[in-house]
Specification:
337 residues; mainly alpha
Amino acid sequence: MNTIKQYAPGFIACFVISLLAQAIALALPSIGAALFAIGIGIVCGNTFLNKSCFEAGTKFSERSLLEYSIVLTGATLMLSDILAVGWNGLAFVACQMTLTVFAAYQIGRLLGFGRKFRLLMGAGNAVCGSSAIATVSPVIRADSKDKGISITIVNVTGTILMVSLPLLTGWLYQHEVMNTSAMIGGTLQSIGQVIASAKLVGGEVVDMATIFKIIRIVFIVLVALVYSRMNVEQEGAGLFSKQQAEHGKVKAGIPWFIIGFFIIAVVHSLGWIPEPVSRVAKLVSQQFEIIALAAIGMRVKFRDLAAEGPKAMLYGVSVGACQVLVAWILIRLFLGA
């Protein structure tokens, strides 16, 4: 009961915002409910709903509901859809993630940030935003300040790209499904941002961009393994430490919702999920998505942005710009755009 009381205010606020966003979207279907949910959430979360009592519920809505939504998405996709990215798509994701970590590390060094903070920024931008930062933080023994700042900057960068990428992909690719999905799913920081951005394009891009993003999330295990062998303590020393490699322990695995997604997708591919059940799963998944996007908006705080200062924001925007540029090059190389 105490847990329900703790989560209820934030969840109810996000739920109401989601309903309002969907109502507005009925009048403006070309924009869609996703952007309205995030926009209304940002406004409310920085004004009359900017209270600590909403914190637990918005955090639950942002993270847990989005995870449940991803699992339910498996009931609407076939394994053939997931495999549609092909080897070229996998190569694109691997190269994109590697170069993103490298760019974040080098840009952070030029701007004078510490090694651990640069590694957190690399993981957050390359993999899945806050979740990736939370996963690798204990691996590199990052302090809470670096963790908090990196989460804020990564989320802000993702929010900027979330709105701008649909415009960019319309200009570059005329919203062709594979290339647009690769750009959105291969660059945006959190899966909520991927879904929101893809919904602004619509059609098959939502499903395909989600698949690209899921592949990135699975790769968090490899990122954590590499990080565990890095020399993160001595600034200016070699990047990899023999002692760290011998004694580093990785506490990372594939997130439960990714495993659940693949299990449900296999069951659906075998024809064991009736069509009516699949339709209900899709509907519930969409509702969870909109509520989660409202929570994402509510958790973007203007005061946090102001507190980090222009230098940290410059770092985030620079990494985001590099991600987009590298993705454009790799899409031309691997996907023929």
